[in-house]
């Protein structure tokens, strides 16, 4: 910056304009000894030199990163620190800040991508995980049926955080459970038998772990719905004909076992 006026340094008003700070801030920095103008005009007014502006730039950098003024003063007045040390420290701090902001941006993007049912997958990923069973197919009805409940809100919150890998793991657990339950039905096991009740309990815990807490009374209602609602009945009977009714009875027996 050139001094066309022939005056020494810059006035407090000029510096405030350059740096985008208030005159009051500069006066405060002067009062506490953080940034004392090092020159005087012919009339005796304090003026800021180029070195003062460099120091102000350092002050504002550390302030932007949230350092308290006393820590800023300690950093700048450290006799062991040369200008390169400051630049290195600033670079490290900026790199850490960038990383933190990138993580925050990624989290926001993740949330923005969440679908109506909280499933944040592309159509391709969703098909890869769920095949032709689109989980949004019943979204509207689910919202009508349970939309006002805390359980529904909790399932939305949890589902919005799941990645494709999470959904694959959840699906794999359902598939594994279904195979074991189908084998149980094929073997002629009774719904009130221990093996069937254990699988019913596993079913309840799966929903509790991934979606929302399912008390036994609610699980009983689900069991009844798996038979009365054709879509649920078709889902479970596709694992093995008659599985929906068997599961309903096993859920009933398991609930009685735990609540009686």
Summarize the structure.
By secondary structure, this protein is an all-alpha fold. 67% of the residues lie in helices and 2% in strands. It starts with 11 loop residues before the first helix and ends with a helix.
Q: Topology of this structure?
A:
Blueprint: H1 12-19, H2 23-31, E1 39-40, E2 46-47, H3 50-64, H4 69-76, H5 83-113, H6 123-130, H7 139-146, H8 150-159, H9 164-186, H10 194-210, H11 216-228, H12 230-237, H13 243-259
Antiparallel strand pairs: 1-2
Task: Walk me through the structure.
It comes from Streptomyces coacervatus. The protein has 13 helices and two strands, in the order H-H-E-E-H-H-H-H-H-H-H-H-H-H-H. It is mainly α. The termini are far apart. A two-stranded antiparallel sheet has the order 1-2.
